[in-house]
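User:
Hi there, any thoughts?
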Amino acid sequence: MGNVDKVDRTLPLNEMIYYVRKDPRLRQRWLEDLDGLAREFGLSSEELDALKQKDVKRLNEMGVHQYYITQIMRLSFGTSGASNAHPALEAFKRAYPEQFEPAASRRGRKGGNDG
């Protein structure tokens, strides 16, 4: 999944998430005016689209820090109701199915449950 060697330290989205995760006012703007916030930080249309789509794989491929991707999912989906069916986890499963399928099949053999 993530690889710190691929992080683009000049990517405006990395800077934006750094500040948004620390500032309650920016987190509120994330919810109410994401487009305006993105403009202020100079995000490209590609960054904003990947952000709005919650496209984990694209975010990773464009150089978003792997830690910030999880922060983006928390900002987007919230932190309550965490389970194996949480929308944030589903976003990662869609991005990297080859890494989740073996774990799911192991759970099935052990009689595990998905929720």
Summary: The chain is about 65% helix and 0% strand.
